[in-house]
Amino acid sequence: MTNDPLTAVFDAQRTAVEQSRKLTHDTIEAQRASFDAAGEMLAASERLTEQNAELTTGAVGAYFDALEAAFPEGAVDTDELRAVVEEGVETASESQLESLAAMADMVEESGAAYDGVADTYAEAVDSSFDAYLDAHENVEESVSGMADAVEDAGEEFDASA
């Protein structure tokens, strides 16, 4: 039957279009996941910044304690220096945390904006693919009908010869 090769061509075209639609949706979801991952990374960075500040303050405090213990009592006063270091660590940590929070807000806002645009885009893509597949189906039916008609005419021609 003449339709077999044509049916295979139309099936292959339809499969390619459906795979393109799936790839488009997968790409949209991958971008959404990247916004989520960026948010999680920034949250982890905030925790690490806080832990680093605690670790640094603790290490510097232990250093000053060891320094004071190494000298006779009252020979070394590290209180002022200790306060300066702790204030510096706190200031640096606060600055870094503010920057990370600002970035997290930007990522969250960008993700929300992307979601809105992506949803609209996905709807447009689906609508376009649906319209294409409907038109494709109509063309397939027309071509199949013409192929059947040509085949029938060919059989009639053979029969009359």
Short description:
This is ArCOG06342 family protein. By secondary structure, the protein is mainly α.
Structure overview:
The protein is mainly α and 161 residues long. It contains two helices and no strands. It has helices at 3-70, 79-160. The chain is rod-shaped, with a radius of gyration of 35 Å.
Question: What are its keywords?
Answer:
rod-shaped; mainly alpha; 161 residues
Specify Rg, calculated over alpha carbons: 35 Å
How do the SSEs run, as a string of H and E?
HH
The number of domains: 1
Strand content: under 5%
Structural class: mainly alpha
Average of the residue pLDDT scores:
91
What is the distance, rounded to the nearest whole angstrom, between the alpha carbons of the first and last residues?
A: 21 Å
Contiguous helical run count:
2
Biggest pleated sheet: none
Which residue ranges are poorly predicted, with pLDDT under 50 across at least 5 consecutive positions?
none
- Quick one: how many beta strands? 0
Q: Helicity level, as a percent range?
A: over 70%
The geometry reads as: rod-shaped
Protein name: ArCOG06342 family protein
